[in-house]
Structures are given as structure tokens and as C-alpha cells.
Amino acid sequence: xxASKTWIILANGEHARFLEREGLSQTTHQVVAITNPExxxxxxxxGTPLGRVFESHETARHAIEPRRDLNQIRQRKFAGKIxxxxxxxxxxxxxxxxxxxxxxxxxxxxxxxxxxxTASVITKExxxxxxxxxxxxxxxxxEKADV
Length: 147
Known about the structure:
The chain is built from 4 helices and 7 strands. By secondary structure, it is α/β, with parallel strands linked by helices.
């Protein structure tokens, strides 16, 4: 009988890492790492500066806010990409269970995107952004969380 494989998926709005842990081993290795190609760089948050309008009866001016938050749209698209990759590997049975570690907004976006196969193998969701932690620190924190 082979040891069970656990995938630990770490994600935020810009990066995602898929780590694999076999059995009760303390070591992990990275299987997949992706970066959001649409992430804003510097002043690219909204592209062009937001326009301004005059108040109809005064001399005051107000900025025009975008109707949708572009960062949320980018994050939702990236969550969809992560979910599709995870679903592909779940169908191929590359892992037995999955642990999702992401900040609350990304975690919510991921939940909406998970397919039925992926949803069935997720055993734990942790509302934290651990993307920049070293692998041994991630394992240490997962043990403290009784995972």
C-alpha cells in the first residue's frame, strides 16, 4: 500500500504554490508554482488616472470611482486558474487529500471555483497568507493546527 499524498496549496492574489507531502513525512517538495500574469505593477493598478467631475451646483470636484474593483476581478480569474489546475491533478489522482492555505478573500474566491472532485478531497482550509514562508515553517505551522 502506498503512502497517502497530501497537497498543500498556498495562494494569494499574486502567487500560488502547490507542495506535496507524502505520508507522515516532515519534508515537502514543490510540485507547481504559478504567478498571476495580470497582477498590477506599480501604477498599473487602474491603468489610466481616474477621471474627475464637477459638482453640479458648486465648484467641488470628485474622482470617478470604477464600477468594479479591478484587483478583485484579477484575483477571481487567478483563483479560477488555480482551481482548474487543482481539478486536473485531482482527476488524475496525483494526491489523496488537499489543504488550502490562503487569505480570506482568496479563500472565498477559490471556494466558488472548485469543481466537485477538488471539493471532495479538500480536508482543511486555513485562512492565512503563508505564501512567503519556507517549507519547513509551513509544515511546523500545519502541525500546530493539527493537520
